[in-house]
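In the present case, backbone shapes were mapped to integers, as reproduced here:
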Amino acid sequence: MRELHDPRAEVFLDALEAALGGPGRRSREVLAEVRSDLEAAVSHAMDQGQDARSAWASCLEELGDPEELAAAMRGPLPPEAPPTWVANARRLVAILLAAWAASIAWEVRSWDYGNRLGLFSMVACLHLPFVLLLWPGIVWRRNALFRTSTTLVILVLVCFAAFAAPRTEIVYDGPVVELAVIEEPGGAQSEVTESGAEQAPSQALEAPEQPLVDKETVAALLALAFVVLVLSLVQQGKQRRRILLVTAGLLLAVDLPHTVEELLFVREARTAAAWIEAEQERTGLLPTEEQFASGYEPLLIDDLWYYKREATFSLQWSRATQSSSELGYHSDGEIWGND
């Protein structure tokens, strides 16, 4: 069996280890890989007819200077792993932050009927980058685009888009009053309104300036740009795909119960509305709340609230996913949600 060993290789590997920052788990892994590749290259050269001495010399020369090789490796290589307690603490904070974001997304989803994709996505996008930066081993490489100043600019733009008040213009909408000057005895003057005109207080109407894109969408797009910026720091494509799949799974887990709940409510409300309209056609009057409670047999939701007006009615239901929010149905077919 051929023995692959040369003192010059040991000197080279020792110098490479020092250039990588000294002994450690990362440097051991790198040295093991370099040694394996070097031995394979030497073995191949010897199979081609080179003697051992010249084979080692040519292969080491191809690797180049240990300092330059270490500098080239330092960028794509992850840093030395932090102490175990630090890594675990960062994981715990990242998990708590992700849970907090999920709870906010859950509550935001119940504010209205249907998915407000802009607001829903913005909640996720504002938290995901910080979860990725906290979790050890995901983001380790500096990026020229990702700096403190860039981050602050993005956050300021998000806040401006979300909270800046629209400009208004004042429009006078009152009657025109003409003044006439009348000279009185003694040279005194007084101002009176023209005959037939009454003085009226000024009326001002605020005409909001409608933006081309609503603030919610702008803020969501800026938050999405923040996520893309941080995802560009993730070194491994496999990790990036896993992050996107997990995030999409969490958002789906938040959205799906609300969507199912809304479908059930719509079905129940339309069935109840059909019963109310049948009763109205039979008796000529809308049923009372008591008649609805005693006469209507629910399909799945047995706690609908029925409100009767003169010629219209509405049905409301406190959401099962969020008791502080409601879903509503009007006799004209409108469906809404409110917090």
Confidence is low (pLDDT under 50) at residues 165-184, 188-207. Residues 258-338 form one domain. The chain is about 55% helix and 10% strand.
